[in-house]
């Protein structure tokens, strides 16, 4: 199921990483996943019951390159 958040909310949400980059819906491998992915660090944050969990401890780290 794809994440359904209001566009205004998505515009103000940001990753808690030092860059505070915007988030995009889904993951790089699954755009329909119930996650929000940071456009800077690549961490994916779960969306549970329609609520984004923007905690670094809950994030899924991006796969290592190389």
3D architecture notes:
- This protein has 66 residues and is mainly β.
- Helices cover 9% and strands 21% of the residues.
- The protein contains one helix and four strands.
- The protein has one helix at 7-12; strands at 23-25, 35-38, 44-48, 51-52.
- The chain has a four-stranded antiparallel sheet, with no helix packed on it.
- Strand 3 (44-48) and strand 4 (51-52) form a beta hairpin.
- It is globular.
- The model has no long low-confidence stretch (mean pLDDT 91).
C-alpha end-to-end distance: 30 Å
- Helicity level, as a percent range? under 10%
Q: Strands of the largest sheet, in order across it?
A: 1-2-3-4
Number of strands: 4
- Main sheet summary: 4 strands, antiparallel
Could you spell the SSE succession in H and E letters?
HEEEE
User: From the helix content, strand content and strand pairing, which structural class follows?
Assistant: mainly beta
Strand content: 15-25%
Low-confidence stretches: none
Number of helices: 1
The mean pLDDT is 91
So what's the overall shape? globular
CA-based gyration radius:
11 Å
